[in-house]
Design brief:
Layout (H helix, E strand, L loop, with lengths): L1 H5 L5 H23 L8 H22 L8 H19 L10 H40 L7 H36 L9 H16 L1 E10 L5 E7 L2 E7 L17 E3 L8 E4 L5 E4 L6 H4 L7 E7 L3 E10 L5 H63 L5 H28 L5 H23 L3 E5 L8 H22 L4 E8 L2 E8 L8 E3 L1 H7 L4 H9 L3 E7 L2 E9 L10 E3 L2
Length: 576
C-alpha cells in the first residue's frame, strides 16, 4: 500500500533533474550560438543538435514533472540521457572535441542524485565504457586525425575524477542520512526498567556519535544530588554524588557550548562552538578534574543537557573519528538524552505517586472498615466488663459469643480486603461486591443490633473496578454515621446506576444529623458539615455527596460518574 501511494506522488529529485537538464540545454545552445569555436563546417550541425536536445529536454520535462521517483521511469530516462548524449557526441566532432561532453557529467550527477554513490559508480562505468568505444571506433573508421588522443585521455581522466568526487559526496550524504534515521528512531526510555531503558538510549547515542564510552552527569531541580551514568559496551553503572563534588562540570565559558578535544590529552587541541556556531580554540582542561579521571579513550566530546526538570552534560570518549562535524550532531544527541532522562524521572515519580495513592486508599479502607469495627468491639467489651456481677451468666455468655462472631466477621473482611488488592479473575470480580456487602450487613447487625437492608440494582455488576472497590467502605461509613448520630430503628441502602452514574442512597428513620436541611456537595464543603472523609472519597472519584437531614431521619446520597454504563443484571436483597 505504501509503495503504491508513492507511485502517484511527484518526486522532488526528478523535478530537480528536469530543471538542470533544461538549463544545461539552453545554456549550451546559447554558448554554441555565441561563440562557435570549431571549424565552420561543424557550426550548423552542432547548432542543430543543440536545438534538438533542447526540445528533448522540454518534452522530457513536461512528461517527468509530475512523475514519481520510483519504478522504471527514472531508470529509463537515465539510460535515455546517456544514449542521446553518446549519439550527439558521435555526430559532433567525436569524443575528444564534442561540446556534448558536458552532458556525460550531467549523467553522473543524475546517477548520484537518484541512487547515491552506487548509482554514480555504475553510471561512471557505463559512460567511460561508451566513451572508450566511441574513441576506438572513430579512430578505426575515420582515422587517427579524427581523435586527439591526449585530449581524449584527459576527458576520460576527468570523468573518473568527477565520478570519484560524486561518490565521496554520496557517501557523506548517506552517512548524514543514516544519522538522521537513527535520530528519528531514538529509543524510548519509558515502558521498561529505567536502567534498562537508559542503557538502550546510551548505546544508541554512542552509535550515532561513534564513541566507545559515554558518561552523563545530571541533577534534578528538586534534589541536591549529582547523578553519574557511565556506559560502555561491557555495561553501565550509576552513582550519586554530592552537589559540590563536580561543581562546575565544565568551566563557566563552556556551560552552554559543545566542546571537542581530538587528542588523548584533553588539555590540548580543544575547540568549542560559540553562540554563533563558530569554532573557538580552548586552552586548558574543558572538564572538572575529578570528572576527567573517569573519562578514558581517545578524544573528548561534550554537550550540555537542558530540559524543564534536568540540567547536566554528556561526555563522549574513545571517539572513532573526532571531527568538527560531530559537534553539531552532539548537541542534538545531548538534547535527546536529556529528554530520555526526563522521561525516566517522570515515570519514577508517577510510580511513586501511584504507590502513595494506593497506600492512601488502603489507609482509608482500614480506617473506615476494620478500625471502626474494632472500636465498636472495644466499646462492647467495656460494656461487658462493666456489667460483670450485674448480668446473668447466660447474658454475659451471649454477649461474648456475639463479640466472637463479630471478630470472625472482621477477620473474614480483612482477608477479603487483602484479596481485593491482588489481581482478580473475571468470574471472581463479578461476585466480589455482593459478597462484601453481604458480610457488611451481617457485621452491622451483630455490632449495632439494628435491621439493615441493602439492595443492589440490576446494573451495578458491570461498574469499573475502581468504583467497585470504593463502594463497601463508603457504604460502611455512611451506615455507621447514621447509627452513631441518628439512633435509628432501621437503615436502608440502595445502589443503582442512573444516567451514567452510580447512585448510593443510605436512608434511616432516626433523628438525623446535628444540622437540618438539604446540603449539596459544595455547601457541605463550605460549611464543613457532614463526614469529611466520605465527602473526600466521593470527590476523589469525581463524584458528589448530598445530605438531607430532618427530624424524621437522614438521607445520604452519593453520585459517582461511570466511564461506561453498566449492563449486567444482578440484584441482592438482604433483610434482617
Amino acid at each position: 500500500m505504501a509503495t503504491g501511494a508513492l507511485r502517484v506522488l511527484p518526486s522532488r529529485t526528478e523535478r530537480t533533474i528536469v530543471v538542470i537538464r533544461l538549463a544545461l540545454a539552453i545554456s549550451s545552445l546559447f554558448a554554441a550560438w555565441l561563440d562557435p569555436n570549431e571549424p565552420g563546417r561543424y557550426v550548423i550541425p552542432i547548432y542543430t543538435l543543440h536545438w534538438i536536445y533542447t526540445g528533448y529536454a522540454i518534452a522530457l520535462g513536461l512528461i517527468s514533472w509530475n512523475r514519481a521517483g520510483t519504478g522504471r521511469w527514472p531508470f529509463v530516462t537515465h539510460l535515455g540521457d546517456i544514449a542521446v548524449c553518446s549519439l550527439f557526441q558521435f555526430l559532433s566532432l567525436g569524443p575528444s572535441s564534442s561540446p556534448f561532453f558536458t552532458y556525460f557529467v550531467f549523467s553522473l550527477f543524475c546517477g548520484a542524485l537518484r541512487w547515491g554513490w552506487r548509482g554514480t559508480l555504475k553510471t561512471a562505468g557505463l559512460v567511460i565504457t561508451l566513451f572508450l568505444i566511441m574513441g576506438i571506433s572513430m579512430r578505426l573508421t575515420v582515422g587517427p586525425e579524427a581523435l586527439d588522443l591526449y585530449r581524449f585521455m584527459i576527458r576520460v581522466f576527468y570523468l573518473a575524477m568527477v565520478a570519484s568526487l560524486l561518490m565521496i559526496l554520496g557517501q557523506h550524504e548517506a552517512r548524514l542520512r543514516r544519522n538522521i534515521v537513527r535520530l528519528a528512531r531514538w529509543p524510548s526510555a519509558s515502558g521498561v526498567d529505567g536502567h534498562e531503558g537508559l542503557a538502550r538510549v546510551f548505546d544508541h547515542a554512542a552509535q550515532i556519535i561513534g564513541a566507545g564510552r559515554l558518561l552523563v552527569a545530571w541533577e534534578g531541580d528538586d534534589e541536591p544530588w549529582v547523578h553519574l551514568a557511565t556506559w560502555s559496551p561491557s555495561g553501565m553503572t550509576f552513582t550519586r554524588h554530592g552537589p559540590s563534588e563536580f561543581n562546575p562540570l565544565v568551566p563557566a565559558e563552556l556551560a552552554d557550548a559543545v566542546a571537542l578535544c581530538t587528542t588523548a590529552n584533553a588539555e590540548r587541541n580543544c575547540v568549542y562552538l560559540d553562540r554563533t556556531g563558530a569554532p573557538v580554540e580552548w586552552k586548558g582542561l574543558p572538564v572538572h578534574p575529578a570528572l576527567a579521571r573517569r573519562l578514558d579513550g581517545v578524544g573528548l566530546l561534550s554537550a550540555p543537557i537542558a530540559s524543564e526538570r534536568l540540567t547536566g552534560r554528556v561526555f563522549f570518549t574513545d571517539l572513532t573519528a573526532p571531527t568538527a562535524e560531530l559537534m553539531t550532531m552532539a548537541g542534538v544527541v545531548a538534547r535527546e538524552i536529556g529528554t530520555s532522562l526526563e522521561q525516566v524521572s517522570l515515570a519514577e515519580q508517577l510510580q511513586d505517586i501511584a504507590v502513595s495513592e494506593q497506600r492512601l486508599r488502603v489507609a482509608r479502607d482500614l480506617h473506615d472498615g476494620v478500625l471502626q469495627s474494632l472500636t465498636g468491639i472495644r466499646l462492647e467489651l467495656q460494656d461487658v466488663a462493666a456489667a460483670l456481677g450485674t448480668d446473668s451468666a447466660d447474658s454475659q455468655r451471649y454477649r461474648l459469643l456475639a463479640i466472637e462472631r463479630t471478630l470472625a466477621i472482621e477477620q473474614r473482611e480483612l482477608r477479603m480486603f487483602i484479596d481485593s488488592l491482588k489481581p482478580r479473575a473475571g468470574a471472581t470480580a463479578g461476585n466480589s461486591l455482593l459478597l462484601t456487602l453481604d458480610a457488611l450487613k451481617e457485621r452491622v447487625a451483630l455490632e449495632w443490633k439494628v435491621p439493615l437492608t441493602i439492595r443492589v440494582g440490576p446494573s451495578v455488576a458491570g461498574i469499573p473496578d475502581a468504583i467497585e472497590r470504593a463502594i463497601p467502605p463508603m457504604v460502611h461509613e455512611a451506615v455507621v454515621n447514621a447509627l452513631k448520630h441518628g439512633d435509628p430503628s432501621r437503615v436502608r441502602v440502595d445502589l443503582d446506576v442512573e444516567k451514567g452514574a452510580l447512585r448510593i442512597i443510605v436512608a434511616d428513620d432516626g433523628h438525623g444529623f446535628p444540622f437540618r436541611g438539604r446540603y449539596d456537595h459544595a455547601a457541605l464543603a463550605e460549611a464543613r458539615l457532614g463526614p469529611a472523609s466520605l465527602r473526600d472519597r466521593a470527590a476523589s472519584l469525581g463524584g458528589t455527596l448530598t445530605i438531607d437531614s430532618q427530624v424524621s431521619g437522614s438521607r445520604v446520597e452519593i453520585a459517582l460518574p461511570l466511564s461506561q454504563p453498566s449492563t449486567v443484571d444482578s440484584e441482592l436483597s438482604m433483610r434482617t
